[in-house]
What does this fold into?
Amino acid sequence: MNIEFKINEFEGPLDLLLHLIKESKMDIMNIEIEEITKQYISYLEEQEKMNLEIASEYLVLASELIEIKSKLLLPNEKLETEDGEEIDPREELVNRLLEYQAYKEITKVLQEKENIRKEIYTKSPENINNYAEENTTITTDVSLDDLVDAFKKYLERQRANKPLKTKVTVNEISVSSRRHDIKRILKEKKKISFFELFPVVSKDYIVATFLAVLEMAKSKELIITQEKEFSDIICEVPNGK
It folds into this structure.
């Protein structure tokens, strides 16, 4: 029964042969068949001494090496093409080794790309309304998607002007503190543009403000309206407050 055979982590006879050629510092285009055959067979004999079963493909390549060696040693066995050019018995083996070497390099590159890809996680876009409670309505005029879309556009504009700060400081902005600030602003002005609620361009400030607006809309502490599509989004105090 043939088994997958490895010698010092070599997979397959070509892998072993290629290693021997490199270790002997031979030119792959001009292999010293007699020397490389000797080394190859020596490796196989070592495996037999350890009572390891040798897969048939290793023995096949050994016989090919011996045949090539014999052709090189016997001048009468030289082959010629139709044009009278002498055929090098090593040519077919060299071509196989070059092809194997190319596949091995490609495999290495693909393995590296696969390892990089394993570190990347993606998720298909979803309608975030699916996560909203059925009895929660931000406003009769502006949907949650509209508000998130406006927020994304605001971030894009700010990013074009100045990168958001990502360094976390001791004085982080909390959602509750921003709710308090927004209540104070609405008490003074009654209504304000949604985008005016972001006077500070820092990541923690922007996120805290946006979450504060969502919580206040959910608890009916403010209403969000938009007169028409693409017009400004207004946050204002609910009637009677």
Notes: The two ends are 87 Å apart (CA to CA). Residues 1-5, 134-140, 166-170 have pLDDT under 50 and may be disordered. The first helix runs from residue 13 to 23. The CA atoms of residues 177 and 208 lie 9 Å apart.
